[in-house]
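F.,

This is the one I mentioned.
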């Protein structure tokens, strides 16, 4: 019996353990930290061996195959030892994909991947397609494959998950955009990060499709460097295209085969330039799977959007509070500020991943009246923005940040939580940060 060792007892680890056991592996889960109660119960229920708060090398280095949680960097000593021993170290996406014949739509990118994933899933589901959604969002892909049998999967896939793929082959791949993010994991080498994103298409062939942002110079360069075999399906908001999707007179137009699809952007529930692009990508993917135009149009109008992504929380005495906690990098925050139409009090800060905030200066000058810092170390933010806004206040928690922002705002203003940073200094996750923000707003 082959031994499958899993590093990390979170969503992807436990899902892989369930699938591994079902496929006849001798499974062992090892987590350096504490395993959450809900995951521990699942492991016990399935009779899977595990350890927590330690990695026992003798129990790990005897594996035939190792699935590493995406949160564990490759440079840690234990992973290096596995590589030296030539024990394959793969990601959950790689492991699970070999046990399903479903058509896979894989979506990656620095920003927009969650919205594009949820929107693509929505368009397919509303059209009656048998489809599941998993990956970097919601449920583990491996657990889905173990417990359900659907014909199609829409997967949100991070660069960390792509780092561990060898044979993964989506039928449709989408790269929403590529901007500097997570550079701390790639030795501050942007090209390594770009190569990681392009692994989504490396096994595709001429019968597969790669949907991508043709306005993104980094992607265009990546296409020249990696020369994908898949059929290229571009989208653009800057120029008309013979094939793909583009914007003309405030209408999204797609040209894939003979039929031309067209829809006014004013009807979309998702607003902002970046969401026009996300909509184009999801629409193209749905059309490639033969969803009817009328169905796509109806579904684009009734889509709810992603939690923690430019989510209107509520108005308090004429001040609109907006939760964009999912903005964990500068580019995501750039999109958020670009969408703001009223004077804005901006709540920003957290764990900086090597951010360059200078790109935000024009938008901050134009739209932001005050800044509320929400992080343990705000020196970099203060250095960049203290001369640009009249008021800058440091706070140490969501409740305090919301109260201060409310004081600094007046009727007709917006308070925007768009941190541009990871959340791990004060919160468990960006979801935790977003929920605490929403609770604080509701108790004003």
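My design for it:
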């Amino acid at each position: 019996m082959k031994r499958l060792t899993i590093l990390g007892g979170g969503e992807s680890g436990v899902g892989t353990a369930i699938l591994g056991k079902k496929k006849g592996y001798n499974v062992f889960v090892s987590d350096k930290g504490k395993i959450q109660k809900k995951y521990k119960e699942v492991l016990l229920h399935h009779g899977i061996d595990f350890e927590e708060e330690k990695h026992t090398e003798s129990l790990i280095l005897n594996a035939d195959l190792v699935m590493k949680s995406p949160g564990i960097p490759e440079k840690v000593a234990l992973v290096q030892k596995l590589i030296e021993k030539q024990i394959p170290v793969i990601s959950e996406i790689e492991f699970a994909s070999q046990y399903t014949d479903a058509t896979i739509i894989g979506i990656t990118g620095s920003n927009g991947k969650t919205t594009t994933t949820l929107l693509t899933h929505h368009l397919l589901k509303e059209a009656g397609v048998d489809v599941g959604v998993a990956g970097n969002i919601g449920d583990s892909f491996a657990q889905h494959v173990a417990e359900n049998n659907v014909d199609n999967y829409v997967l949100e896939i991070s660069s960390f998950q792509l780092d561990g793929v060898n044979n993964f082959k989506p039928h449709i791949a989408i790269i929403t955009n590529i901007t500097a993010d997570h550079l701390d994991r790639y030795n501050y080498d942007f090209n390594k990060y770009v190569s990681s994103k392009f692994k989504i298409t490396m096994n595709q062939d001429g019968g597969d499709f790669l949907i991508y942002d043709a306005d993104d110079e980094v992607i265009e360069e990546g296409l020249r460097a990696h020369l994908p075999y898949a059929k290229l399906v571009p989208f653009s908001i800057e120029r008309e295209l013979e094939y793909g999707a583009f914007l003309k007179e405030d209408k999204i137009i797609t040209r894939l085969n003979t039929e031309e699809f067209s829809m006014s952007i004013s009807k979309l529930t998702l607003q902002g330039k970046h969401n026009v692009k996300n909509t184009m990508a999801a629409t193209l993917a749905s059309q490639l799977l033969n969803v009817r135009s009328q169905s796509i149009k109806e579904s684009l109008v009734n889509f709810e959007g992603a939690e923690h992504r430019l989510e209107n929380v509520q108005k308090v005495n004429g001040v609109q509070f907006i939760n964009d906690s999912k903005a964990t990098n500068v580019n995501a925050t750039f999109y958020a500020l670009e969408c703001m139409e009223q004077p804005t009090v901006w709540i920003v800060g957290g764990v900086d991943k090597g951010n360059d905030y200078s790109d935000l200066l024009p938008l901050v000058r134009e739209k932001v009246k005050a800044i509320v810092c929400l992080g343990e170390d705000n020196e970099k933010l203060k250095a960049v923005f203290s001369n640009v806004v009249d008021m800058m206040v440091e706070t140490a928690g969501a409740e305090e940040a919301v109260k201060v922002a409310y004081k600094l705002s007046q009727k007709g203003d917006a308070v925007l939580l768009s941190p541009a940073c990871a959340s791990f200094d004060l919160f468990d996750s960006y979801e935790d940060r977003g929920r605490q923000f929403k609770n604080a707003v509701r108790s004003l």
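The domain at 3-90 is CATH 3.40.50.720 (Rossmann fold).

Talk soon.
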